[in-house]
Specification:
This protein has 14 helices and 24 strands. It is of the alpha+beta class and about 525 residues long. The strands form 6 sheets. The chain has a 6-stranded antiparallel β-sheet. The protein has a 5-stranded antiparallel β-sheet with strand order 3-4-2-6-5. Helix 3 runs parallel beside helix 5 and helix 11 crosses helix 14. Pfam families: RRM_1, RRM_10, RRM_5, RRM_8.
Length: about 525
């Protein structure tokens, strides 16, 4: 069956009848280049965005139509040259893949996908995918356009991330050629080079926004302006997997070589790590070049099963076995005992994890035990809140030897200093993969406000803060979403107190304000 017949507006096939009504296709002679590309054997659950991303490396995508009932899709490129490049690329031995399935790319019998004016367009999802593609094309001013080199930024790096960890993760998508790691603006970053644009594109689509560990070490990926990496040394900071004989940069190690198992001269990098061969040094037990094979990450880490291309969505790339050296309980001291309460500590520490219990010590009221839901949340809270000024005193946060916080026994004096929050409705991270994990920032003088009703004005919000004895310096609604706003206070200490007081503030009968720290300023 020709793909022209599949999408003819006169088609009676039930599976794609609705989609066929939404476009008009101008037929053309078969077997000739067309700017419309026909893609067959697509998975049933594939999205318009994934189809669009197949075409982005070759040029601007102007329209998309997905016929899920027929496992087919059509992609319209801005010009015929882009479509020719795409078809030639996937016809030259490189398989196109979507969610681990090989798909087939060929020219369509149609010259264009035309919008039927009686319908909005193919679908809202298609429009969103095309707008995202156009935004991506416009990013070349601040970052590179689609190419073989990716720039990777690791946010919220609670645990160490090494070059080897990145190699194992990014090798799941395809063969990694080179990696260079560095620190810029106190943030760990890396440049990763793939052999071709399509593999780099797949890695960006698959891994951007994923977490290496649960709730932290988030990957932010963009295209680099560099088209190739020049690696001089193979060591813990940089690696050229195509040239394992590069020196390490350590003169003591580079001065001698070690003979490998079969009389092969090992590289200086192998000498440094006691590796048997260049293949072992570069690839370990990883499956390189894509495909569905599992691999082993260093130090007992593991990646969830299945192909990396199936790992779309909010699920983290959780590295199992990695826990904090301590448990989920923190010892917090040097508190202002006249002002601090279990609820205040619940709200503040709840910015970085779900607080289960808080106990202010009965005989030492400037000290508290705070039990978080998980050890990594305790680590996050300690990282961001230790030495923070709260109510005029610099609090100290450190791991506790206690494994949990006990509720007082019946009849034991407590004066309300111990509270259980396990069933609180105010936990921010109850949902797996919650977006709140991606918005964890250090305390700052600017607060992020959300859940604002549409009828509440700037003046009302500022007046609420003023009535609570805070002095807002600036305020700004989000231009495209008035449910959110930024409010700036005079200092970090004032903002911390404001967050504690104003989080869950009732703005209307059915709306309570949500407050967190912002990475932005006004």
């Amino acid at each position: 069956m020709s793909n022209g017949a599949v999408l003819s507006p006169q088609s009676n096939h039930a599976d794609n009848n609705n989609d066929a009504k939404k476009v008009k296709l101008e037929p053309r002679s078969p077997a000739k280049p067309s700017r419309v590309v026909h893609i067959r054997n697509i998975p049933n659950d594939v999205t318009e965005a994934e189809i669009v991303h197949l075409g982005i490396p070759f040029g601007r995508v102007t329209n998309v139509l997905v016929l899920k009932g027929k496992n087919q899709a059509f992609l319209e490129m801005a010009d015929e040259g882009a479509a020719i490049s795409m078809v030639n690329y996937f016809s030259s031995g490189t398989s196109a893949q979507l969610r681990g399935r090989n798909v087939f790319v060929q020219y369509s019998n149609h010259v264009a996908l035309k919008t039927d004016q009686s319908h909005s367009n193919a679908s809202a999802a298609a429009q969103a995918a095309l707008q995202a593609a156009q935004a991506l094309a416009g990013q070349t001013e601040t970052q590179g356009g689609p190419n073989t080199v990716l720039r990777v930024i690791v946010e919220h790096m609670v645990y160490p991330v090494t070059l080897d960890v990145l190699f194992q993760i990014f090798s799941k998508v395809g063969r990694v050629l080179k990696i260079v790691t560095f620190t810029k603006n106190n943030t760990f970053q890396a440049l990763i080079q793939y052999p071709d644009v399509v593999t780099a594109q797949a890695a960006k689509l698959t891994l951007d926004g994923q977490n290496i560990y649960n709730s932290c070490c988030t990957l932010r990926i963009e295209y680099s302006k560099l088209s190739s990496l020049n690696v001089k040394y193979n060591n813990d900071k940089s690696r050229d997997y195509t040239n394992p004989t590069l020196p390490t940069g350590d003169h003591n190690l580079d001065a001698f070589a070690i003979t490998g198992g079969a009389g092969v001269l090992a590289s200086p990098f192998q000498a440094m790590h006691g590796l048997a061969s260049p293949l072992t040094a570069a690839y370990g037990s990883a499956s390189v070049g894509g495909g569905g094979a599992d691999f082993i990450l260093p130090s007992g880490f593991s990646l969830p099963g299945g192909s990396a291309s199936a790992a779309l969505g909010p699920a983290a790339l959780r590295l199992s076995g990695q826990q904090c050296s301590s448990g989920a309980v923190l010892l917090v001291s040097n508190l202002n005992e006249e002002m601090v309460t279990p609820d205040a500590l619940f709200t503040l520490f709840g910015v970085y994890g779900d607080v289960h219990r808080v106990k202010i010590l009965f005989n030492k009221k400037d000290t508290a035990l705070i039990q978080m839901a998980e050890p990594h949340q305790a680590q996050l809270a300690m990282t961001h809140l230790d030495k923070l000024k709260l109510y005029g005193k610099q609090l100290r946060a450190m791991p506790s030897k206690h494994q949990g916080v006990q509720m007082p026994k019946e009849g034991q004096p407590d004066a309300g200093l111990t509270k259980d929050f396990i069933n609180s409705a105010l936990h921010r991270f109850k949902k797996p993969g919650s977006k709140n994990y991606q918005n964890i920032y250090p305390p700052s003088s600017t607060l992020h406000l959300s859940n604002i009703p549409p009828n509440v004005t700037e003046e009302e919000i500022k007046n609420a803060f003023t009535a609570a004895n805070f002095a807002p310096q600036a305020f700004k609604f989000f231009p495209k979403d008035r449910k959110m706003a930024l409010i700036q206070l005079g200092s970090v200490e004032e903002a911390v107190a404001a967050l504690i007081k104003m989080h869950n503030y009732q703005l209307s009968d059915s709306s309570h304000l949500r407050v967190s720290f912002s990475k932005s300023t006004i």
